[in-house]
Amino acid sequence: MYISFSDRARTTDVPSSTPGKTGAKVSATVVALGLVSMLTDISSESVAAILPLYLTSVLGLSTIAFGFIDGLYQGVSAVVRIAGGYAADRTEQPKWVAFFGYAISALARIGLLVGTGFGVIAAVVTIDRLGKGVRTAPRDALITASSLPENLGRSFGVHRMLDTIGAAIGPLLAFLVLFFIPSGYNVIFVVSLAFALLGLVILGLLVPNLSRRPLAATPAGAANAVRAVAVPEVASEVGLEVGPEAPVARPRFRWRYLNDPRLRRLLLVAGIFGLLTVGDGFIYLVLQARSSFAAAWFPLLYVGTNLAFLVCAVPLGRLADRFGRLRVFIIGHGALLAAYVCAALPTIAALATIGCLVLLGIFYAASDGVLAALASQYTPDGSTASGIAAAQTVVALARLLASVGFGFLWFALGRESAVLIVAALLAVAIPAAALLLRPYLARPRVS
Amino acid sequence: MAPLGLRARWTVVTVAAIVLFGAAAAFGIAAFSDYQRQQAKPSGMLTAEAGSAGIAAVAGSEADVARIVFRNTALGADYGFVAAVPLTDPRGARVVTDVSCDRVYATNEYEMCLRVNRGVVTTFSADLLDGNGALVKSWPLPGMPSRTRISADSTLVSFSAFITGESYSTIGFAIATQIAEVNGPDSGTLEDFALTVGGKPVTAADRNIWGVTFTSDANVFYATAASGGRTWLVRGDRAARTLVAVRDGVECPSISPDGTRIAYKKVVSTSPTTTWTVAVLDLATNEEVVIPEPNSVDDQVEWLNDSTVIYGLLRADDSGASDVWSAPSDGSSAPTLLIEHAWSPAVIR
Known about the structure:
The structure holds two protein chains of two kinds.
Chain A: H1 2-5, H2 7-17, H3 28-58, H4 63-67, H5 69-91, H6 94-114, H7 118-145, H8 152-180, H9 185-206, H10 219-230, H11 232-239, H12 261-275, H13 280-290, H14 292-296, H15 301-323, H16 325-343, H17 350-377, H18 384-413, H19 415-436
Helix pairs in contact in A: 2-10, 3-7, 3-8, 3-9, 5-6, 5-7, 5-18, 6-7, 6-9, 7-18, 8-15, 8-17, 10-11, 12-18, 12-19, 15-16, 15-17, 16-17, 16-19, 17-18, 18-19
Chain B: H1 6-40, E1 67-72, E2 81-86, E3 95-100, E4 103-106, E5 110-117, E6 123-130, E7 135-141, E8 145-150, E9 156-162, H2 168-171, E10 175-181, E11 186-189, E12 194-197, E13 200-201, E14 208-214, E15 220-227, E16 230-237, E17 242-248, E18 251-255, E19 261-269, E20 275-282, E21 288-290, E22 302-305, E23 308-314, E24 322-328, E25 336-339, E26 342-348
């Protein structure tokens, strides 16, 4: 932990002199936000991993009952996501809106310790996901505000890497506890609460409430950004509003700021892509049904995807900064296309299964953080959280529709045909997206 | 209030980390030593000589003595291990084997053991064991074990498991069921069998099949099929690879030893959570009798004899605790406790 923060000293020195260099370090705030996400993901994924086991073997509940929670929260989550982004922009308090989202998720864990029964579990899972909906956009806005525009892809890459490490550690930790204490569900709930609370403490104390991004194009802006990182409280309380260094007044949030033609087209493309992203679950099911290797390792397939995601997040984020974020975003969907084709291949050997998981990981690394970086790039200061929320909501809703639609295709036409149809549509959508976004596809100019 | 300096903030974070993880670790250590103490303690249930390798060891040297095999759920060192009691004295001393299963079924020759192989990477398997507890065959499972059966002549096995894993919540409820020959090939997943309801094929995406029960005809079995929130009792044909719905609202069928009746669980209420009761269908007259069981039953019923059904019941007041109950199959009287601290019973005649 200290090693990452030791970058802080260099951060204060480097970017002010060479703001345009992509070799500049990621800000300490981004690392802190990454740690918060990592701790929170350890917390939520450790519980999520053992929940089916807990419900069936301890509470004696039918797994059918658990499956139906899902549809309930999806729609609500999209609404609160927009609300979270809007609240962050409107109040100019992205940190505290995010804090609220993290806090209600953490407090929901207490419910697991005091209550048993289906109602309690359903409430905990729902509140946890609502909290996730609220916090995501304000947090991504904070990442934007504490990164130099030239390094945005890398910052999101670092954040998503830490986040995914948390998602990988959580289930391992939970099963490790169960390995030593087979009935130790309460221990997992307590450990989960501890991780969530520590995440809250770090967010509360080490993350500044930045609601404007640094203006790296001017040395003054870069200096301002650096100061904001180094002295958080001063930057947020003085620098932004009344500080003599503040070069321009922070623009107020306006819905019409989200009317940028670049953002509109990005949302359109993200929506189209979302409609053709059927969800890992289905891919795993296709693999499971067709490959004995995948069937044997079915409960662990997601680990492979997560590993590839966390390994590729930073390199692809950096590539996005240098080579062009839109290019990486669009080409990244080529990895998804390849994963579909791989899953529908006539024969699936173990190697193909692994290849499919790696491709999915690459797809996430090239699309998740990069989309947030793009959305914030296309929205003015003061509207970033709403812009990011809009993009993420479009994707979430489109993917929900995709899952429903794919379910119909699946049995109407059969597994392989369904996958191949979606793959064919995606093969058309990728060049179409490139055409739609052509005016903005240029390689970023390195100053 | 003056804002804290960076050093002070880091101090607070460090202290918070120590306090939070310290508390969690203390809780974990306490739970671990509790668990160890419990493991060391005798279970409180009367047990016969320990260390028996397999179910064959039960009831002395005579392997063909009638008995009930089940999962022992008495807290203590033997929790989760397969145990057996003589059919003539189900409340007497239980023999605990050293085979551990989450779901078990047994015949004179074999034992089907569905397992959660806990570890840092947790996997699931269906293991076929012989009478001495030696592994004969093993199949990987996609998730949490559900039901298992062996045909009366010990030639066929079936097993159901939930398709869980990380993606679980995005897919919703899904279950995979397979029938395999002990000395032959697998029939593959039953989802690939052609399902018809009222003469019309059902090909919906949410089709699920589970809870197989074998008949005396090796080609014919019964199971549950579900789609669109409805469930059916289906009659399966292994050779034709078909499933034909014969009745609505039936889950986890179990055919009586004489083949004349089917016992199953049926939904009595869906709010706030689903509750089931046990019913028995006469195949000749198509008449249904409901067992007067006040609690919700989530189990695949087993037949003690041609006129008695038995099933596991969770204790409402004590999470994780369960007993096996028995009731006359004509619904004439209330269920009675058969075996304390037991789950997943199988009768070996």
